[in-house]
Input
Amino acid sequence: MLVLSFESSCDETACAVLEMSDGVREIKSNIIASSVDVQALYGGVVPEIASRAHIEAISKITYEALSTAGVTIKDIDLIAVTNGPGLIGALLVAVNFAKSLAYANGIPLVPVDHIKGHVAGNYLTHKKLEPPFLAFVVSGGHTSFFDVKTYTGFDEIASTRDDAIGECFDKIGRVMGLPYPGGATVDNLARVGNKHAVSFPSPAISKDTLDFSFSGLKTAVINYLNTKNQKNELYSKEDVCASVTYSITEAIKDKVSRALSETGYGKIVLAGGVSANSHIRDELNELCRELGAEFYAPELSLCGDNAAMIGAQGYYEYLNGARAGEDLNAYPS
Output
């Protein structure tokens, strides 16, 4: 089955063509147009600018995805599109484009939850991976554990109670004057810093829950930086990045270890934009070796928002009977 898929939940406009079947999970094209350079001027995503960028890019990248895959719209068997969660104006661009394309060509249309799509990116990296498993989704807007019982059956068992991990990295980076998005730069600087230089609070809030809270950590780091600036005292950005990263990875290791124990699963799947963080990947890989558990993470090209992951999840949603009509809408949360 050939799947044409779309993703426009934030600032990436993406279109992909996949070949999916019982024994095949193949990306034939995966095109992404990003407005991150424009968003960087404002230190974060401006929803109206993101929506306009999607409108300008979506038709072009659709032609490019089909051409790169060596197919035409007449060869497509299924169209999948992200319809939430995300920025509502941005989501509506791909939803309406996909609806029109599906209706005009008589192709089945399937809506896809963005979070499930991130998890499905692992199916394209690890061709034999299948549920059930524990999933840990970390991104700019999400930090959650999911009990993935089937390809389409997800139960959220824990999450952040306030800020998400990606937002924490980006806002700390912005206060230090790092390029947007700050997460990647924080990752790199942490490699050369002293992780024990500054003691920051843990986002692992309680032993009685698997939930996280990143607002206290974010506030503590920002207060530390503001105090240093007000006193005209020098500080090491490398040490701050390393110390923040250490606090976060230690909390993640604690919660993942407990989540695996409580669910009884022997494998965990990492997903989401922050799954590209090298420290989190390394620490979870080592933790799983110690626990005798299997660890899965998507290849780096599939960590951020992309349409290939949406196509993979869309295929399984289709097999489960999901269909969308002309009344398909987007939802922000």
Q: What stands out?
A: The longest strand covers residues 25-34. Residues 132 and 153 are 9 Å apart (CA to CA).
